[in-house]
Amino acid sequence: MIKYSLMTLGCPKNEVDSQHMHGFLNKENDFKYTENFKDAEVIIINTCGFIQDAKEESIETILTALEYKNEYNCKSVVVTGCLTQRYSEQLENDIPEIDAVLGTSNFDKIADVVRDSLKGKNSGGIDTAGFEYSSSLPRQMDNNVFSYLKIAEGCSNNCTYCSIPQIRGPLKSRSIADIIREAENIAESGSKEVILIAQDTAQYGVDIYGRSALAPLLRKLADIDGIEWIRVLYSYPEFLTEEIIETIAEEPKVCNYLDIPIQHSSSRIRKLMNRKGDKEDIANIINMIRNKIPDVKLRTSLITGFPGESEADFNNLKEFVKEMEFDRLGVFEFSREEGTAAYNLPDRVAAEVKKKRKDEIMDIQIEISLNKNKNLLDKSLEVIIEAKDEEYYTARSRFDAPEIDNLIYIPINQNLNIGGIYEAVIREAFHYELKGEIKNESTK
User: Fold this and answer.
1) Taking residues 317-342, what's their average pLDDT?
2) Which ranges in 301-393 belong to alpha helices (H)?
């Protein structure tokens, strides 16, 4: 029996890939998973390589895993994911102790590659970016609260700052029928929340249907028994159609929540980013969303310090954040990535300026977040219970995505089911957290 550990770094797309790797390994009779690196004969690292900070974290994790070969039971370290897809040759040259590499396009070979690595044979390697996802692939879910559902791989938007086309290939959508089959499997596994992910979910279906098929997909998903919440992540606002927005408004199971990465509001910077639309276009889309879905919560992500970002451009962004009052917001400092069009752009912004600008935006947002959370006091929210410790249950509302948005803490004076959906009344509000109590004990 081969004991293995698998560590996942990066975004939910990587989490899905890791669940598939667990599925491929566990359908074999000679593999057994262990959480403890000290007990593992093989350590698998599913890396992130999107921006510099993620690359550094991945390399540190690889080096840590390699130390277990000297001190514990580990005989092989296998590295896969985004970092290897981009830098496989460099990794193998700089860290020859790695026993095998796989990329984002061929992780389905994981079982054979692990076996070969234990025999001293590196049978991995990297294939052309782009993986064919299917409901027939083995997948091992890791919780009964929510499940990510990858509806497309890759991206064809070609934003100048982004390395995803190198890592994941061009947009490759799955058919609606195949996605529905996987969603039915998820419902049977017990998860009540399905979270749709792709690099740009608004573009789902453009490559195979000639237009966005997100709206009809949402309507079909809403018909599946057992699924109570459907959440949509990562929709570029310039591609959100009125049909998509109306579908979210009309379907009770679809959470009134959208993650719409805008990156910047300055027309000049957006053009340098190869992003469509200007500040007014984005504002019009946001206003349309809020008019059609009055209680919607909007998340966005921004980039500070993009090459050429002047003080005027940054002030434009600050004013836009104040004006739009996004419900949730994250900021990244521009990361200069090899192979992207922005890599060679002139007028680079100093690191300390990028950080200062990021901090300024977050200082604005933290007060917006606090005020919005205070507006929830004494109001009822539908929540899903995620975990339990000695003092509290942790929960999320329909307006919060896992791992990035508000957590709601519920006292453990009631017997609640993990994965259960309840009505909670909010009693205390903080910048990014809430405290509440269950209104009743009926679940969906």
Assistant:
1) 97
2) 311-324, 351-374
Average pLDDT over residues 379-389: 96
b/e 335-363 (16+ beta carbons within 10 angstroms → b): bebeebebeebeebbeeebbeebbebbbe
Residue 212, Ramachandran bin (φ over 0: left; ψ between -120 and 50: alpha; else beta): beta
Q: How far is CA 87 from its chain centroid?
A: 22
Strands 172-173 and 152-153: antiparallel
Q: Would you call 182 exposed, middle or buried from its count of C-beta atoms within 10 A (0-12, 13-18, 19+)?
A: buried
Q: Which two tokens stand for residue 309?
A: 């970002």
Spacing of C-alpha 137 from chain mean position: 20
- Rounded-to-integer distance, Cα 282 and Cα 1, Å: 55
pTM of the model: 0.95
DSSP-assigned letter for residue 174: P
Structure confidence at residue 167 (pLDDT): 92
- Identify the structural domains of the chain with CATH numbers, from first to last: 2-118 (3.40.50.12160), 146-374 (3.80.30.20), 380-438 (2.40.50.140)
Report the C-alpha gap between 410 and 381 in whole angstroms. Answer: 12
Q: How far apart are the C-alpha atoms of 435 and 397, rounded to whole Å?
A: 12
Measure the CA angle with vertex 224, ends 220 and 228; round to 5°.
110
Of 72, 1, 9, whose CA–CA distance to 36 is shortest?
72
* Percent helix / strand / coil, the chain, rounded to 5: 40, 25, 40
Q: Which residue has the tokens 């896969």?
A: 80
Residue 431 and residue 362 in contact, taking contact as beta carbons nearer than 8 Å: no
Average pLDDT, integer, range 370-390: 96
Place of tokens 């389905």: 108
Strands 433-438 and 31-33: unpaired
Distance (Å, whole) CA 85 – CA 76: 20
8 A C-beta contact, residue 301 and residue 332 = yes
Using alpha carbons, select from 216, 144, 151 the residue that is nearest to residue 186: 144
Q: 354: closest CA among 317, 328, 323, 322?
A: 317
Hey, how many other C-beta atoms are within 10 angstroms of the C-beta on 11?
18
Under DSSP, the state recorded for 264 is: -
Question: CA nearest 185: which of 145, 150, 241, 147?
Answer: 147
Mean pLDDT over the full length of the chain: 95
pLDDT score at 442:
54
Paired with 299 in beta bridges are 259, 328
